């Protein structure tokens, strides 16, 4: 039998709860005969990983584990302690739908509704950008300067899921935070995450464009932002997972990718305390231009580009003069 045809036959058996795994009559899930290749956790993980690899997943085994744990409503570690467990019809049906959607490159985080960031679990929806390890560098650096302050006031612009603001609030129990986003749907997700992690009482969420919704005269010790910074020409070359599913509003940085970063850097000194700190995430290719933007204002005491955990230029760190 051709490989493609065989793959389809196996998929049909996996997806059809009335089909026996080996093409024979349905057998008892409690006691499958020795010659029946039952749909155990191990077999489903192996098959799913192979299937997703053929459809472009960069982490097919991890995807398979996360999706199956979600379908079974268990932790990933429990999959390994129950390798020989035969899946119920209900779990097989749900897993089939999840695998089909992932094969169309829908992000795993949207399929399961959450993503880990800075060792915290965050709710995510298609209304927000999926948190990524790249951004953890910004969070760590912001903590580094804020932890020496008695009661730091911190501003998070373009907050999205709230992963930056909530992570900072968890690590800095004396901090008061303000988070801004232009999307009311994103703010609803950020609010859920703040409540989930017990920091809602210290996090003020404001709807608006960058500094616009802030009270007049309000200044901050730290300003952190992961703004839209993908240049318009690069949008169509993004991975399907990102281009087709993540919110364009959170990605599109205009012609050169700096449409949001430019006013952010220019206005930040007016909103920072004297000696306050600015942290802005960027793409590695933008590092020279972003550093130049900060230096040309003449309003920063210092400015440098920090590298992320992968060694790539990722974050502007600048200290205000005023």
Automatic annotation (TrEMBL):
Residue numbers binding substrate: 226-229
Record has Ligase as a keyword: no
Domain Release factor glutamine methyltransferase N-terminal stretches: 44-113
Family: Belongs to the protein N5-glutamine methyltransferase family. PrmC subfamily.
Annotated catalysed reactions: L-glutaminyl-[peptide chain release factor] + S-adenosyl-L-methionine = N(5)-methyl-L-glutaminyl-[peptide chain release factor] + S-adenosyl-L-homocysteine + H(+)
PANTHER family: HEMK METHYLTRANSFERASE (PTHR18895), MTRF1L RELEASE FACTOR GLUTAMINE METHYLTRANSFERASE (PTHR18895:SF74)
UniProt GO BP: methylation
Keywords: Methyltransferase, S-adenosyl-L-methionine, Transferase
Domain spans labelled Methyltransferase small: 151-233
Gene name of this polypeptide: prmC
Protein's name according to its UniProt entry: Release factor glutamine methyltransferase
Cross-referenced HAMAP family: RF_methyltr_PrmC
Class of this enzyme: transferase
The protein's Enzyme Commission number: 2.1.1.297
Origin species: Schlesneria paludicola
Record-linked InterPro entries: DNA_methylase_N6_adenine_CS (IPR002052), HemK-like (IPR004556), N5-glutamine_MTase (IPR050320), PrmC_N (IPR040758), RF_methyltr_PrmC (IPR019874), SAM-dependent_MTases_sf (IPR029063), Small_mtfrase_dom (IPR007848)
């Amino acid at each position: 039998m051709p490989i493609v045809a065989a793959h389809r036959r196996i998929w049909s058996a996996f997806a059809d709860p009335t089909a026996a795994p080996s093409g024979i009559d349905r057998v008892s899930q409690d006691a499958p005969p020795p010659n029946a290749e039952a749909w155990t956790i191990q077999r489903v993980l192996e098959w799913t990983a192979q299937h997703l690899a053929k459809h472009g997943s960069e982490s097919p085994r991890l995807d398979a584990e996360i999706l199956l744990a979600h379908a079974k409503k268990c932790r990933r570690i429990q999959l390994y302690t129950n390798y020989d467990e035969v899946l119920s019809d209900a779990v097989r049906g749900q897993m089939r739908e999840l695998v089909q959607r992932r094969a169309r490159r829908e992000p795993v985080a949207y399929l399961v509704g959450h993503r880990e960031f800075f060792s915290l679990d965050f709710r995510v929806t298609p209304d927000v950008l999926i948190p990524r390890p790249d951004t953890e560098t910004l969070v760590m650096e912001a903590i580094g300067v804020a932890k020496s302050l008695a009661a730091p006031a911190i501003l998070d612009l373009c907050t999205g899921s709230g992963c930056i603001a909530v992570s900072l609030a968890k690590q800095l129990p004396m901090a008061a935070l303000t988070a801004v986003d232009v999307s009311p749907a994103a703010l609803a997700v950020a609010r859920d995450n703040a409540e989930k992690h017990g920091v809602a009482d210290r996090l003020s969420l404001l709807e608006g464009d960058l500094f616009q919704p802030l009270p007049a005269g309000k200044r901050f010790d730290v300003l952190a932002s992961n703004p839209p910074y993908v240049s318009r020409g690069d949008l169509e070359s993004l991975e399907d997972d990102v281009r087709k599913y993540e919110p364009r509003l959170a990605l599109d940085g205009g012609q050169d990718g700096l449409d949001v970063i430019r006013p952010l850097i220019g206005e930040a000194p007016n909103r920072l305390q004297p000696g306050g700190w600015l942290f802005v995430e960027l793409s590695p290719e933008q590092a020279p231009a972003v550093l130049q933007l900060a230096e040309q204002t003449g309003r920063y005491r210092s400015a440098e580009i920090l590298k992320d955990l992968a060694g790539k230029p990722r974050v502007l760190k600048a200290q205000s003069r005023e």
